Amino acid sequence: MATPPPYPRAHGLLDGKVTLVTAAAGAGIGYAAARRCAEEGATVVVSDRHERRLGEAAEALAELTGVKPLAVPCDVTSETEVQALFEAVEQAHGRLDVVVNNAGLGGTARLVDMTDEQWDVVLDVTLTGTMRCTRAALRRMVPQGSGVIVNNSSVIGWRAQEGQAHYAAAKAGVMALTRCAAVEAAPHGIRVNAVAPSLAMHPFLAKVTSDELLAELTAREAFGRSAEPWEVANVIVFLASEYSTYMTGEVISVSSRHP
After folding, report:
1. Cβ atoms of 88 and 140 closer than 8 Å
2. In a domain, 110, yes or no
3. Where residue 32 falls among pLDDT bands split at 50, 70, 90?
4. Could you tell me which of 54, 98, 107, 199 has the fewest CB atoms within 10 Å of its CB?
5. Any catalytic annotation for residue 31?
């Protein structure tokens, strides 16, 4: 199995950019994105529905970067909490330059056995939650005439997988939302793009996924290994930076598994 490359050096790609990352607690893509953005000079705000883990993430970022980020608990299924989150960013920093919409929820259920509740909760967090945060971001970025939104989708939005109808539908929806939002936002100087990871390994994923399935998914990857969360975060940083100023409405596959 191939080994991951060395962790990247910072290059100041996001110097001074006020950057909000949702679902940033834990050890997955959200935390990795918050860390990489902070390392690239961004003023980071982190959010998550799990208040204790969010506080731990903020402390860990402070130890790594020397700056403790503003941490605002938020459940993206609540419009009231989403509005409070964006208002807190405005009050603390006066502007908002980048939003990374990372919140999502998976699950496994065959369609014939799936309940409405199982379907609804995945769609509400993963798709509608992304819409709520994208809408809130645009309402603030349009008046300032600038901004970047990066959504976290998945290759499963392109491909079929048994037991994943709700999650695949939600992630395909995030792709469509990204493209439509990009068209509306472009006249205001705002870019909206998405990443579509395949398999990014972190402790929670390892905990909820069987060894057999992980081995099967890993075998499908061109590099013969899962991505490190920071490798996905690197692409998020690129899309948030001035190196991608002519890209909008794009969904970037962070794997070899684009159809």
Report:
1. no
2. yes
3. very high
4. 107
5. no
CATH of the domain at 41: 3.40.50.720
Strands 98-101 and 18-21 come out as parallel
Q: What is the pTM of this model?
A: 0.94
Query: Structurally, how many domains does the chain consist of?
Result: 1
Torsion angle of the four alpha carbons 181, 184, 188, 191, in this order, in degrees rounded to the nearest 10: 30
Asked if 167 contacts 224 with a C-beta cutoff of 8 angstroms, the reply is no
Q: Phi and psi at residue 184, in whole multiples of 5°?
A: -70, -35
Residue with tokens 């970067």: 65
Please report whether residue 2 resides in a domain.
Answer: no
Domain span holding position 52: 18-254
Which residues of the chain form beta strands (DSSP E)?
18-21, 43-48, 70-73, 98-101, 147-152, 190-197, 251-254
Rounded to whole angstroms, the Cα distance separating 178 from 259 reads 18
CB of 69 closer than 8 Å to CB of 35? no
Question: How far is Cα 34 from Cα 92, in angstroms, rounded to an integer?
Answer: 17
Residue 193: strand, helix, or coil: strand
Q: Over the stretch 147-166, which tens digit does the pLDDT of each residue have?
A: 999 999 999 999 888 999 99
Closest by CA position to 49, among listed 84, 90, 14, 19: 84
User: Is 201 a domain residue?
Assistant: yes
Which candidate in 7, 31, 167, 243 is catalytic?
Answer: 167
